[in-house]
Amino acid sequence: MEKLDRLDQLFVGWAFLFQVGLIIHFAIRKPLFEAYTLKYGWIVYALCIPAAVISVILLRGGKNWGFWLGGFICVLYAGFGYWVDYVARYQFRNPLRLQVLIPYVFLYLATVMFYWFPLARLDRRLWFAYLVLFVIATVLNITSH
Q1: Within a 10 A sphere around the Cβ of 139, how many other Cβ atoms?
Q2: Which tens digit of pLDDT belongs to each residue from 33-82?
Q3: Contact at 8 Å (CB) between 70 and 55?
Q4: What distance lies between CA 104 and its chain's CA centroid?
Q5: Which residue, 84, 58, 55, is CA-closest to 71?
Q6: pLDDT at 92
Q7: Contact yes or no for 93/101 (Cβ under 8 A)
Q8: Would you call 122 helix, strand, or coil by DSSP?
């Protein structure tokens, strides 16, 4: 990590913070559905704000597109998710509605992948550490529905 420039450090810090935020959200979503998820679940979508700001900083700093694209995809994911969950209140998880679920999952995974995969270009250990967090988040996400 000491050989990374400031923009790389910003990317790494945000990528891990984003994933930890997802883990916390997924961990408390099921047991606190009424008290937390219905009232504060939108906070996960609000993470697109710092994601977009960081992506602009990385883009203007001359970083490769692989480092800044994730934040912009996060904006698409958050906008779509917020609209589906809080504006239209469209039930698509139970029962499954593939016409909403497929783009929702695609945008979510694209966001996560564009934070995960570029880590391998910086340091393979970061990539593996993120893999562990991704697995934890995925298990918690699946079991919290």
Answers
A1: 12
A2: 778 877 888 999 999 999 999 999 999 999 999 999 999 999 999 999 99
A3: yes
A4: 12
A5: 55
A6: 87
A7: yes
A8: helix
Cα distances from 70 to residues 39, 94, 95, 115, in angstroms, run: 26, 28, 29, 6
d(CA 134, CA 128): 10
The sign of the torsion formed by the CA atoms of 104, 127, 41, 70 equals negative
Q: Averaged over 4-29, what is the pLDDT?
A: 96
Q: Find all residues with CB under 8 Å of 129, minimum gap 6, and list them.
A: 16
Q: What is the pTM of this model?
A: 0.92
- pLDDT tens digits for range 120-134: 999 999 999 999 999
